[in-house]
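Lay summary. Proteins are chains of building blocks that fold into shapes, and those shapes determine what they do. In this project we predict the shape from the chain. Here is one chain we studied, written as its sequence of building blocks.
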Amino acid sequence: MKRTAILLSVIMITGACANDLQYPETRRDGTVDEYFGEKVEDPYRWLEDDASEETAAWVQAQNTVTDAYMKRIKFRGKLLQRLKEVNDYEKVGVPSRKKNGKWYFYKNDGLQNQSVMYEADSPSAEPKLFLDPNKLSEDGTVALKGTYFSGDCKYMAYIISRSGSDWEEIYVMDVQSRQLLEDHIVWAKFTGAVWQGNGFYYAAYDAPDEAHAFSNVNEYHKLYYHKIGTPQSEDRLFYVNKAYPKRFYQLDIDDDEALMFLYEDGAGAGNNLYIKDLRGGGEPGTGGGPEGFIAMTSDMDFQYSVFDTDGSTIYIITNWKAPKYRIMTAEASKPQISNWKELVPEGEFVLEGAQFAGDRLLLSYNQDASTHAYLHAKDGSRICEIALPSVGSAGFVSKKGEPWCYYSFSSYTVPGTIYSLNLEDASSTLFRSPKVGFNLDDFCSEQVFFQSKDGTRIPMFLTYKKGLKKDGGNPVLLYGYGGFNISLGPAFSAIRIPFLEKGGIYAEVNLRGGGEYGEEWHQAGTKMNKQNVFDDFIGAAEWLIAQGWTCPEKLAINGGSNGGLLVGACMAQRPDLYAVAVPQVGVMDMLRYHKFTIGWNWAPDYGTSEDSPEMFHYLRAYSPLHNLKPGVKYPATLVTTADHDDRVVPAHSFKFAATLQACVSAEPEAGSKVREALPGTAPAIIRIDSKAGHGGGKPLAKILEERADIYGFIMYNLGMGW
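And here is the predicted shape, written in a compact code that computers can read:
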């Protein structure tokens, strides 16, 4: 079972200081909002209009400043070249067998923009190219988001996105001939392709106003059924819930096409789960709507996810009455939650994944932010632990009733490596390992723990070059996320290698708000507990300094999306603690985030400024945009965003950068087109990518260019050089 989870200016720079840095003038208007009787200025509101000529001119002017700054980093070219060298190695994904007996996997030869899908007769047989996303566009900006085979494997639907947008398109190909059919779906979003009969279900919104397709609010997520060989205009509307315009809906159907499951998300920390029995017949695509399903649950504060079925028995992983998750079973004849039975109880650690492997259950747990996996009998009893190569992260691919299982393993110092798992004795055999062009033995990684402001024990991983000394002056890049029940775990990235080679330390901290220790850990970093996340991150920085790893002059912080919010809030709260800040695609305006695209979906984690006076005051107290102040010495800051980011719209970063530049600049003279940085201030620049989005599907060439700028900016302002 697979759920698709949802104005130009000239600058002069001397050294790393911004004494002579000149910023484009950003017009201020008189926009003022009122919240519960309190007025809040929003002078850069006009930057929210991503389709205006004035905003486009501002973007061009800002990129001109940033490009000129980057040219002053003399080693930037060498850094980019080294990034290309260390990333130029073959990367192969985990193989999986489909019902047609063929095996499929992804491979990247090294510097291909997008990974390529291959087909083989066996995992070890010579593969044949099946689908190459690099041929879908000249510049690699069309990304493959997912592939979905029909039940008889005659067809495969594949989903693409363009320029990093969340908007998706669906195409269909004949599996045997590799020929593309005429079927084409547009304006899909947060969707898969769920096959039934001679067609598939997908999720979409009504076609938007194209001028504001990347910023307007998305409402009324709809499910359609598409029959092969017909135009999209004839697709049957299967499900829409007009009572709740701001919710997501996704379908799943078991392998026997007997049971259909509907997921409803967007109104709490969890989801609702519904079922429809397909065994009574009926034409595919009919019998939809809210009245066509039986509710299995009624509380969207908990997660419910069906991971497999066996006849009429349904297997569910859930945190209902189990903050660290457990496995329950339900019967299709009486599917309501009151009839569920516990199969595997909640344990000491967080249950992150469950699947069948042959006739056994394979369960993955998160233990102190790394994977531990176990085999269980079908009755739920534990058989044994799977001995993984070391501390790291593992992802398994297996199927019910089939004797094979493969898994990938990686850590901060181990690139993605594929193993074959013997389901009888739980032993692992190396199947395929990458051959990198640098010495992995030069680096080491360790896990440490420290106490946050309120005494909570927080884990953090440190990765660095062997032989490094704790002399209080090492360059450190501190990374975090801390939200939406998302766990960070050991994972390899060759992009960090040049920074590590030059003596840098990469520190990744597991903050509250994530999922590392279950739902209680998650809730401890949400709504009016959100300050805990910032305290944890600040605590990590203070611990690194106190323990002699680094000092404020050598400390950089980085995070993206919710992690961009983290960096923005922490640099506003403790600007003295860091030398460099790089907030990427961050949620910076906490008073208006819910007014764009699917921002309303983040309310269960954040709350909104419209909820209550208390929630408004809490959000304003940490909102990065609203807590920058003139006269404060902020870290050297590089804000990043992209023109097609319709997840966290670029207006967040635009307004934050404009405000930060105003805070570090003297007031311009009358008629001036620039703001000149005050003496002694650090740079405050913004990098705005084109034909790119929130990050997903970005071609490797663009990733390396962006990372050369980010790491170049960090290393330059930490005084690392080359």
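What the prediction tells us: Residues 22-85+438-717 form a domain with the Rossmann fold fold (CATH 3.40.50.1820).
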